[in-house]
Amino acid sequence: MIHAYAAHKPGGALKPFEYDPGSLGDDQVEINVESCGICHSDLSMLHNEWGLTQYPFVPGHEVIGTIAALGTAVTDLQLGQRVGLGWFAGSCLTCQWCMSGNHNLCLSAAGTIVGRYGGFADKVRAQGSWVLPLPEQLDPASAGPLFCGGITVFNPIVQFDVKPTDHVGVIGIGGLGHLALQFLRAWGCEVTAFSSNPAKAEEVKQLGATQVINSRDPEAIAAAANSFDLLLCTANADLDWESYINALRPKGRLHLVGVVPNPLTIPLFPLILGQKTISASPLGSPSTVADMLDFAARHHIAPITETFAFSQVNEALETLRSGSPRYRLVLQH
Question: How many alpha carbons lie under 13 Å from residue 188 in its C-beta half-sphere?
Answer without folding.
Answer: 6
